Amino acid sequence: MAEPKNDEFLDDIEQAEAEAYADEIEEIDDEALEIEQLRAERDEFKDRFMRALADAENARKRSERDRREAENYGGSKLSRDMLPVYDNMKRALSSIDDTQRQQSKALIEGIELTQRELLSVFKKNNILPIDPQVGDKFDPQLHEALFEAPVANVKKGHIIQVLGEGFTIAGSLVRPAQVGVSSGGGD
Questions:
Q1: H or E stretch including 169?
Q2: Does 4 share its domain with 22?
Q3: pTM strictly above 0.85
Q4: How far apart are CA 63 and CA 69, in angstroms?
Q5: Across the chain, how many H-helices and E-strands are there?
Q6: pLDDT, tens digit, 9 for 90 and up, residues 136-151
């Protein structure tokens, strides 16, 4: 009868070892599961970090572009508002005859100086005149045709009269030059 007790004792040891081994396996499985969860969480955080980094870079580029555009085109409304002032000064100066020029020399020189200063301010702010000449080819991107007339010895689509200067700001059209265009040779 002693032997069965010994076998029972061995069975109990084996059972205890088996349970301990099962616990270890379960613990290892739990650790492996926990590691997998941590890896998944790490990957999710990495993805979120990369997206946030990309968003920040895009925002930086967008704000830089907006700043450049504001710098280049911020004065376009003011320039459009100032162009009639320039036009009126130019018309006033072109209507002065030699007698008036002699009588009011200082006043006229002051107006001319003011007009040059206005053009200087325009240039400093990248507002440049479009000054087409008679005979130039009509460009619909820069010119506005106010009329079309047949003119002898002038090719169709060429400027025959300049009625008003145009202006660009940073290469973008603020106001087209106003011109008359030839419709071809007259009959």
A1: strand 166-169
A2: yes
A3: no
A4: 10
A5: 4, 6
A6: 999 999 999 999 999 8
User: Do 101 and 160 share a domain, yes or no?
Assistant: yes
Encoded amino acid at 7, one letter: D
Q: Is the pLDDT of residue 90 over 70?
A: yes
59 and 105 share a domain? no
**What is the domain extent for residue 165?**
74-182
Helix 76-94 with 105-124: angle, nearest 10 deg: 150
DSSP 72-117: HHTTHHHHHHHHHHHHHHHHHHHT--HHHHHHTHHHHHHHHHHHHH
Q: What is the pLDDT of residues 2-46, one digit of tens each?
A: 455 556 666 777 777 777 777 777 777 777 888 889 999 999 999
